[in-house]
# Entry
Amino acid sequence: MIGRMPGAALTLLGLLSMLEGLRIQAEVRETATFDSLGPDRYLMVIAALMTVFGLLLAWKPPVSIPRAESSEGGRPLPDHLMMLLALIGFATAIPLAGFDLSALGFFLLAFLWVSRWRPAAGIPAAIVATAALHVIFVTVADVALPKGLLLD
# Structure
């Protein structure tokens, strides 16, 4: 049952986000100067994806991913706190390293440190996830991503 809770929470968050996107579309779109996609439609697309993936997580048993063997015995922090630290590191690194390098670092931490994937699976997955985010934001959504002080 515990494995189904994140899926249920993601589904609920997706449905609530969809309602908010519909509210923005109905109440604000006519009077605001949004572009053709605007924040309401972005939100509705993300909400639909969250709902679909939440339902998949809630109904599908978890898939076993090869994990690196841990010689240290216990984990120093619970997984959710480790993921929070990775997310804080990501947000903190964006102004200095830019979005792409920060996202790559975040995914490497999430896959290798938090999820304990083997490097042979975690490193390519982090590169693919970073590239996918870049393509989605820059090519599809036409959003300029921060380059950071190091790359500016």
